[in-house]
């Protein structure tokens, strides 16, 4: 039983997901609230402002323009004070048509190091296959020794087999001679 005498935790509950329509409705409500606040700050335009507000809430096509206006509005005292921070980088979104895909790309340090590492590995493998590296020389020497040992072992085995055959042939001759008598 969990602490405090409670029966179950929160993790077993069914999750509730927000539908896209509900999200859109919430965003529209927030935009409308922001517009109302702007109008109150400007002093209110009376009946003309209310008519415009109703028209904009009905037209969803103009919502893109409202987003831009809302983003440009500064919060708090930012509208009163101009900040001149030389370290501040303003992010500008580039359009796909403005991107320069044909120009040379500058690689990051990690990418450059990775490419250099691959090239060095390829050079080493070429040298290794040509037998010019110390490791390749050691490998070739070891292989030569192994070949000699195998050739000697094969030669000994062949001699032993011949000696065995000769002994068996000589034994058969003796048997055949002894049977003939």
Automatic annotation (TrEMBL):
> Where are the residues of the annotated region Disordered?
1-117, 151-181
Q: By its UniProt entry, which InterPro entries does this protein fall under?
A: Casein_kinase_sb_PP28 (IPR019380), HAP28 (IPR039876)
What ranges does the record list as Acidic residues composition bias?
Answer: 60-69
**Biased composition annotated in UniProt, kind: Basic and acidic residues:** 50-59, 102-117, 151-167
Q: Which Pfam families match?
A: PP28
Compositional bias (Basic residues) spans? 1-14
What region holds the Casein kinase substrate phosphoprotein PP28 domain? 85-162
Which PANTHER family does the entry link to?
Answer: 28 KDA HEAT- AND ACID-STABLE PHOSPHOPROTEIN PDGF-ASSOCIATED PROTEIN
Q: What name does the UniProt record give this protein?
A: PDGFA associated protein 1
Q: Which organism is it from?
A: Chelydra serpentina
């Amino acid at each position: 039983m969990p602490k405090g005498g409670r029966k179950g935790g929160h993790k077993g509950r069914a999750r509730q997901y927000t539908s896209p329509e509900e999200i859109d409705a919430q965003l529209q409500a927030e935009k409308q609230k922001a517009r109302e606040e702007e109008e109150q700050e400007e002093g209110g335009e009376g009946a003309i402002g209310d008519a415009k507000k109703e028209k904009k809430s009905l037209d969803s096509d103009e919502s893109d323009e409202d987003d831009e206006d809302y983003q440009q509005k500064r919060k708090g005292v930012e509208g009163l004070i101009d900040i001149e921070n030389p370290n501040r980088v303003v992010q500008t979104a580039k359009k796909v048509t403005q991107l320069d895909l044909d120009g040379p790309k500058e690689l990051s340090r990690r990418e450059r190091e990775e490419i250099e590492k691959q090239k060095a590995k390829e050079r080493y493998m070429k040298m290794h296959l040509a037998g010019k590296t110390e490791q390749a020389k050691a490998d070739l020497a070891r292989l030569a020794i192994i070949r000699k040992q195998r050739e000697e072992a094969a030669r000994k085995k062949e001699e032993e087999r011949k000696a065995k055959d000769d002994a068996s042939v000589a034994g058969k001759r003796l048997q055949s001679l002894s049977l003939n008598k």
